[in-house]
Amino acid sequence: MKLILDKIHGDKIIWTIVSLLALFSFLPVYSASSNFGNDFILSNIIKHIAIVFIGMLIMYGTHLIPYRYFKGLSIICLPIIIILLFFTALQGNVIEGANASRWIKLPVVGLSFQPSSMAIVILMVYTSFYLSKNYNKQISFVQSILPLWTPILIIIFLILPSNFSTAAMIFMMILTLIFIGRYPLKYLLGIIFSGIFLLSVFIFLAKSYPDLMPNRVDTWTNRIDNFIGEGSSESNYQIIRAKSAIANGSVFGVGAGKSAMKNLLPQSTSDFIYAIITEEYGTVGAISILLLYTLLLFRIIIVSYKSYTVFGQLLALGVGLPIIFQAFINMGVAVQLFPVTGQPLPLISTGGTSIWMTFLALGIVLSVSINRTNDDNINHNNPLNVLSETE
Question: What is the pLDDT along the chain (391 residues), one digit of tens a residue?
Fold first, then answer.
């Protein structure tokens, strides 16, 4: 054990939180899988264990890479991910008339890969690099259109037709990061209104010409109608079952593996796994999970605060905040604070690409936490004056 700990560097609290969430995930995944039969339980839990194990290796390997190298990697990977997203969108996969082009199948191995999960990490790294490079410069909106906003808009609009919640999350996280990175505030309002305008145009075209491009606009509107109470009880089936699971859990829960709603609740191993956790472990378990994500948020902020470079500070927040935001959205959906979004619970829900990209992002945060001061030509006389040093 000591040999393993000696090889682990960076923020030990982040390592502990991630390990706890990853290990805990085996319990609700195993329990929620039981509604599909014994054969599925075994195959699903083995698959989940393998994915988490590979994810831990990804995080470990990533945290050993000096974070300055991610600048160049983001520039190289940005056009690659745009091509992958474009190829994914061109597949034209349709479920009940809606665009379901989210995955591409990798040749030879036959595994499905979701480019949008990787796009979030790459885009946040690239945006952090751009903002740090221009941190003490007067940036005009025109100058930033091509290097900054063009790749952002391309990625968002390639993801939007099939996955509105992910596209919206990327847009909000980008706005948060550029605000922190001191992008001129006078442009922010215009950018927000421009985004709303472009989304309105897309919805109008999708409604007017439904055969032009498969999309999920009707699904979005139905989910919003259900959230505000205008949908039917049948269309609100998921939320009703999730709330029943939460109510059934009471304070201490019904016990591990004893959920009744796992047999009735769709997506119980992914989108609504928090409801199953609350039913089995009660309010105590639900709050414990919430506190772990909140503590992870604080540690990400501390890692950013302690970094000696602007890029390191922005990078830790850029790749770390989407994980916490996604977790809060998932938990908020289960308790009906938000409309149904289809966002998994990071480190706990089943998945493949999304889990690996979460571990990749956390590995980057850990890389920043190591603070390789010898590799950065920075004045360290005032390390606590965050976002004040130039690179």
Answer: 565 666 788 899 999 999 999 999 999 888 877 766 666 677 788 889 999 999 999 999 999 999 999 999 999 999 999 998 888 877 755 444 444 556 676 655 556 678 888 999 999 999 999 999 988 888 888 888 999 999 999 999 888 887 888 898 999 999 999 999 888 888 888 888 888 888 888 877 777 766 666 656 666 667 776 667 655 555 577 788 888 888 888 888 888 888 888 777 777 788 889 999 999 999 999 999 999 999 999 999 999 999 989 999 999 999 999 999 999 999 998 888 888 887 899 999 888 888 999 999 999 999 999 864 434 444 444 334 445 444 4
Q: Which domain holds residue 314?
A: 9-372
Distance from C-alpha of 135 to C-alpha of 6, rounded to nearest angstrom: 36
Return the number of other C-beta atoms located less than 10 Å from residue 145's C-beta.
11
In a domain, 330, yes or no: yes
Between CA 272 and CA 333 the distance in angstroms is 8
Residues 369/10, Cβ–Cβ less than 8 Å = yes
Q: Is 4 inside a domain boundary?
A: no
Rounded distance between C-alpha atoms, residue 122 and residue 263, angstroms: 37
In a domain, 207, yes or no: yes
**Are the CB atoms for 361 and 322 separated by under 8 Å?**
yes
Coil, strand or helix: which one is 94? strand
For residue 304, what are the CA distances in angstroms to 314, 320, 367, 370?
7, 10, 11, 11
Yes or no: say if 55 and 22 are a contact pair by the CB < 8 Å rule: yes
Q: Classify burial at 211, counting beta carbons within 10 Å of its beta carbon; exposed 0-12, middle 13-18, buried 19 or more.
A: exposed
Nearest residue to 246 via CA among 309, 187, 328, 333 = 333
Confirm whether 382 is domain-assigned.
no
Cα-based torsion angle of the residue sequence 208, 214, 218, 220 in order, rounded to the nearest 10 degrees = -120
Structural domain count of the chain? 1
